[in-house]
Design goal:
The protein is of the alpha+beta class and 650 residues long. It has helices at 2-36, 54-61, 82-101, 118-125, 166-178, 199-204, 212-220, 250-261, 299-303, 392-396, 401-406, 441-446, 497-509, 528-561, 577-602, 606-649, and strands at residues 67-73, 106-111, 130-132, 138-146, 152-155, 184-189, 222-225, 239-243, 265-269, 305-307, 311-315, 319-327, 330-342, 358-362, 367-369, 376-382, 387-391, 416-423, 463-468, 480-485, 488-493, 563-565, 571-573. A hairpin with a 2-residue loop joins strand 20 (480-485) and strand 21 (488-493). Helix 14 runs antiparallel to helix 15.
Length: 650
């Protein structure tokens, strides 16, 4: 009996010791893993949301002096706000990953600014903006970065509307702090970029609404506006942005030409019909001095580009869906003059467009390589072959979307909307032009800043120019939804217009590190199948509608010919029996044609509704059915195994 008790006690001791050893081993493995595998990770998300882009790695590798990041997050107050709490965890994970990859060059401080604390006073003094709760408390959720000098950059509040730009915003903040000064972007434009549709008068009243792309440019570069009449591009300008200027005089064209001859980089936007210029301001009229069309001749031809300012590209496959309200049965239509250009129509080998998902354009023009040019013409953005060139005068007459579709005839050509121009260039001028009208030669030579550059006939190295045949890419309504947060405006992009412009200028500046960081993932995805079904249904509807309308009109005409008007204005039928029979037949045809037209209109959405039903079935019913079927199969297999074991036992 005693031996049995001892054996039982010994087994219990062994079991307890085993549990203790397993616990010690578990803790040791965890400590070892935390130390050795701290930087190890496996990102299984579809868009690799938690993996730093190569551009961020490059920016971190170029940091010379330490940068301090102060992440202000009111964690104790955000417990009742799951959306903020989830996003804050993602921001913190990104910042910790950046710190780990910076090799000690990035110092991270996480601060929870409790109400009425010194940390809250610090957050307010650094310009962070808090979100007030219904209880009157303020949640801070922002980032402040500082360098060893006096540089300071901030994200006042991490808005969920910019989640897809999170890595870009943080990396841009770090890059701005890691270099002594921002690169200089010169701008020549007749668009109200810095004031919005209201122009200078509204800006003077405090109602300025700058284009969101311009605000992004301000965050990234030092902006130097050049008047549209100058004789020299300032030497501090790194890249020149020419966006839909009015007609430039010879001296200004010469200044741009010589800027390129000396190695300057240019991004130019020309347009046969600029809708953003025609946008009405608060007074109901466009900005005073607006220009409907723009061109850069003779520079474009010299650069190796042909641009036809009399035609506008229309694309049936890329047509943007717009609200019409012209027909109670059809509230939307394809507008072929407004295009949504997908990734498949962008050059995936060029770093500027490789990370762009889709772009929106309006009444864009077409570019062609000039014959005999010394430069290389590389298309960046193009239409599909289901496109044609509309005459500008017809476009300005205001045709409806259905009118454009009904007379659409594809020319089976891909029309280039944007292109990169590279290679050796010769000047468009043979000598320095005379001074502008009204400016004396003495005043031109009195100041070196106002003196034209000495003539250079050719580039010493290959030029690098990007030309876009559209200016509506800057228009907020084509690429972004703007949410107001008090005095601030938050941009929620639904197209990559800003991404393309900023990427192109970054590339021309010689900095490619931020190009891959514009958007890590998209919150919205286009319903490609639904859009294609709707577009095909519209085509069938319009074709059938035109045929039936023509038949109805012809029947009504023939019916009217068989009827006569009586003395009192009443319509009388012919007394001829054959005529009466023909009238009855025409009326029957008329009723049948009108019924067929109603059937076409009724069936317009049939395929779309059927697809919606199928998707709803897959989302709601298919998964439970599959789980139930799997459970049934497993039950049958288990039952058969039990029967087999029972049979063997017998």
């Amino acid at each position: 009996m005693l031996k049995s008790l001892n054996r039982t006690h010994l087994r219990s001791s062994y079991g307890l010791a085993t549990l203790v050893l397993l616990a010690v081993f578990f803790i040791a493995v965890n400590l070892f893993s935390n130390i050795v595998f701290r930087s190890a990770q496996a990102d299984l998300t579809q868009n690799r949301l938690f993996t730093l882009s190569q551009g961020t790695e490059n920016v971190l590798a170029k940091i010379d002096e330490p940068i301090t990041l102060k992440f202000f997050y009111s964690e104790s107050l955000a417990t009742d706000f799951p959306q903020i709490r989830t996003y804050a965890n993602r921001v913190r994970d990104l910042l910790q990953e950046i710190r780990a990859r910076s090799h000690g060059k990035v110092i991270l401080q996480v601060i929870d600014p409790e109400p009425f604390s010194e940390q809250e006073d610090l957050a307010m003094s650094l310009g962070l903006k808090g979100a007030r709760t219904t209880e009157g408390e303020v949640i801070y959720f922002g980032l402040v970065g500082t360098n060893l000098v006096d540089g300071i950059e901030a994200v006042p509040f991490f808005s969920s509307a910019r989640q897809q730009y999170l890595e870009y915003d943080v990396t841009r903040l770090i890059q701005n702090l890691s270099r002594p000064k921002k690169p200089v972007l010169g701008i020549v434009t007749n668009l109200p970029m810095d004031t919005g549709a209201g122009g200078l008068m509204e800006a003077m009243r405090g109602n300025s609404q700058p284009f969101m792309i311009y605000q992004e440019l301000q965050n990234r570069f030092e902006i130097n506006f050049l008047e549209q009449k100058f004789v020299k591009v300032p030497s501090k300008v790194d890249v020149l942005l020419i966006a839909h200027p009015r007609q430039l005089d010879e001296s200004t064209l010469y200044a741009i030409d010589q800027f390129v001859m000396r190695g300057g980089r240019v991004m130019a936007f020309v347009d046969p019909h600029s809708e953003v210029s025609l946008t009405a301001g608060p007074g109901g009229q466009p900005v005073q001095g607006y220009t409907e069309a723009s061109n850069l001749e003779p520079l474009l031809t010299t650069w190796g580009v042909e641009f036809d300012p009399k035609h506008v590209v229309g694309d049936r496959d890329l047509a943007m869906r717009v609200q019409t309200g012209l027909d109670a049965r059809r509230q939307t239509s394809d507008y072929v003059l407004w295009m949504t250009v997908p990734k498949s129509n962008l050059d995936q080998d060029d770093i500027v467009t490789a990370n762009v998902d889709h772009l929106n354009f309006a009444t864009a023009g077409a570019l062609l390589p000039a014959k005999g040019a010394s430069t290389k013409f590389t298309p960046l953005i193009w239409s599909t072959e289901d496109s044609e060139l509309y005459d500008l005068d017809y476009v300005k007459s205001g045709p409806t979307p259905d009118d454009l579709l009904s007379r659409f005839k594809a020319d089976n050509q891909r029309h280039v909307i944007a292109a990169r121009i590279s290679g050796p260039l010769k000047s468009a001028f043979t000598t320095t032009p005379p001074p502008p009208t009204g400016v004396s030669e003495k005043s031109q030579t009195s100041d070196a800043a106002d003196k034209p550059d000495e003539y250079v006939g050719a580039t010493k190295s290959d030029a690098n120019i990007i030309v876009v045949a559209d200016s509506d890419i800057f228009d907020d309504r084509f690429w972004v939804q703007i949410q107001s947060d008090g005095a601030d405006r938050v941009a929620q992009p639904f197209a990559d217009n800003a991404k393309f412009v900023l990427s192109a200028i970054d590339n021309l500046m010689g900095s490619d590190d931020l190009i891959s960081l514009r958007a890590r993932e998209r919150a919205d995805r286009p319903f490609v199948v639904v859009d294609n079904l709707r577009r095909e249904a519209d085509r069938q509807f319009l074709a059938e509608q035109e045929r039936l309308k023509a038949k109805i009109s012809e029947t009504e005409r023939r019916l009217a010919a068989l009827q006569t008007e009586g003395p009192n204005g009443a319509v009388e039928q012919s007394s001829d029996p054959h005529a009466q029979e023909e009238i009855a037949q025409f009326r029957a045809e008329l009723l049948q044609s009108r019924k067929a037209l109603r059937d076409v209109e009724r069936n317009l959405r049939r395929n779309i509704d059927r697809l919606a039903t199928e998707v709803r079935f897959v989302n709601v019913a298919l998964m439970p059915v599959l789980v139930a079927a799997l459970a049934l199969v497993l039950a049958v297999i288990r039952h058969r195994r039990r029967k087999a074991r029972a049979a063997k036992g017998v």
